[in-house]
# Entry
Amino acid sequence: MTRREFIEKSGNSYLAMAALGFLPEAPAKPFHLPRNEKPNGKKIVILGAGLAGMSAAYELGKLGYDCTLLEARDRTGGRIWTVRKGTSETEIGGEKQVCQFDEGYYLNAGAARIPHHHHLTVQYCRELKVPVEIFGNLNEAGYYFSESTRGALANKRVRAREVHADMRGYLTELVAKAVDQKALDLPMSAEDVERYVAWLREEGDLDLNKKYKGSERHGYATPAAAGLQAGKIAEPYALKDIVESGLTHPAFANVGEYTFNQQPILLQPVGGMDMIPRAFTKLLGDKIRLSCEILEIRKTQPGVRIVYLDKKTGQKQEMKGDYCICTLPLPMLKGIASDLSGEVQRAADFVPYMETCKIGIQFKRRFWEEDDGIFGGISKTNMDITQIFYPVHGMLGPKGVLKGMYNFHGTAKKVGALSLAERQKLALEQGARIHPQYAQEFENAFSLAWHKIPYSKGGWGVYSDSARQRLYPVMTRNDDEIYFAGEHASNLPAWMAGAFESARYAVDMLHKRVSAG
# Structure
């Protein structure tokens, strides 16, 4: 699989094109609408109390609108979900699961990181007084583990820095050789070529002959110590061994360093990602009605009528409003009886959502820090678990919760089809190939398959390039008195900033319509 194929199959082709400047980047800046908190007589029914719904209600409240949010779950936040002690969930067709983590430990089961340039997300954290800390996305001390039938480095853990340093060295050596042989078409002066080669030597740590023979960046076979012991630099891996062992597989690509939306620095709320929805929930108070499952979305022209099931009483209820903002994930929207236009229903039918699984594993001690010197960041593998995330919160503490799996597509579908016990077994067995301490230090785990989570049925909307052109514009227009918001209605799918900016866009359109009379 080529890198391009990997990106496209991961549902990130649009993000990659935007990052490269081929498509416009969606803005993510604070609102600048005129404020008027006096009641204006208009009632807005908002479907869903995730970030899009709550931020829309928050902003509309500043403009004087009367908002009510209907949320099917017994909690707010939607896919901004932090699993803690006592959290319970029953997947579609699955068994009930109750989290057994110790008090104070958690897994960010949904969104987990905030890019520093997602200004609107950062602005809301500032405005809602949600403190943030660094999210460790990159760590050169993390491991790569390639499960392969051949290769000297196959089926053993190697440090990310070792592969990075050696591949950078071999690549720059290759380019330097091509320059020497005038094999590259370089419209540069001789002086500029000399400067370029000098940069290649520095970038790849090449010797005077422009050869890569190893580097302290790879690490040391014998570390420097007090007294007479000088450090001895480790021998580099052979390029043949790196490639043959499968360490150039897309699973090991430096997405976290080069993809625009994962470039350092990334942030996270102190105490868990749910600190953001909790802050909104506190501000909105009784405007939010939980355990209200939407059954029908009807147009009354003018106005809307929403029929829902109050799961607390088991009774059907209905609510009327002048306008509606629908933030429901598209897999949920297509299962609801409605008067929505054919275009909207087509978008709901044909925009798939990412299949993705995660598992949080609590261990008796933070062996990744104590034994392996890993503080934050990610280890990567081509096994089914795909990634292991190391928590930044609680460093040097007695225990910790690793995100022991984060996968996508067919792998996630396969893993999601397993029972909870089988998922745990898989995560422990594969994780132990990277960290042998797993078996001895394991305490408990909590896993989830987002495509089987009620009221979500997927991780995020995945637009192909053609679907983005055909179906996405429908999400940016109102359908009579119904407006749409959510990450699927933005140019930043899968990110909180997408939910926030889509809410802003819907609020702006609705308010301009009302203001125009």
